[in-house]
Amino acid sequence: MTILSGIHELFERQTARSPAAIAVRCGNSCLSYQELNTLADRVASSLMLSGIKQGTVVAMLLPQSVYQMVALLGILKSGCIYVPIDTAYPEERITYLLKDSEANAVICSRENEEQHTGCQVFLIEDMINGELTSNLYEQRLIRKN
What we know:
Elements: H1 7-17, E1 22-26, E2 29-32, H2 33-49, E3 57-61, H3 66-77, E4 81-84, H4 91-100, E5 105-108, E6 120-123, H5 124-128, H6 131-144
Parallel strand pairs: 3-4, 3-5, 5-6
Antiparallel strand pairs: 1-2
Helix pairs in contact: 2-3, 2-6
């Protein structure tokens, strides 16, 4: 019997069993296991290509949506530690949580990207669209040449 090392591996097994089944639903939005897995892989790739190392604390500052689960799984797949932060918290509380958790990066949406300081900022919209990943990949290729 294989011992799994994380919830993301259990999720990938379920994705292989039923890729078209609904994995997450929030309001009128939903994602299948395959869609969620693909988007989480993009988040993980974006983090790793930007130099975020395993064990790094990454905060999630996202409004309630299916993208919270995308970010959570992406953070876990990259080997990082996630810290969920409620966007409804006052700015002082958010700043305290980012500092106290020693977050080096934060995944947020365009609507709340101004709510934090002192962290490397990743916009979930760019991560899931693959824009960040392709830009980072191109930058690494340019640096190598």
